[in-house]
Amino acid sequence: MILLNLTPLFLMKALSCFDFNIFLFLKNGFLNFVLLF
Length: 37
Known about the structure:
Helices cover about 95% and strands about 0% of the residues. It is an all-alpha fold.
């Protein structure tokens, strides 16, 4: 039962980390795009 309770928390943490990495990637890409023009 403890494992089942921890699983959603772990998934949420992993997803938020993943979203943050995508955000940084997009932000860097956008800055590079702006600097080109």
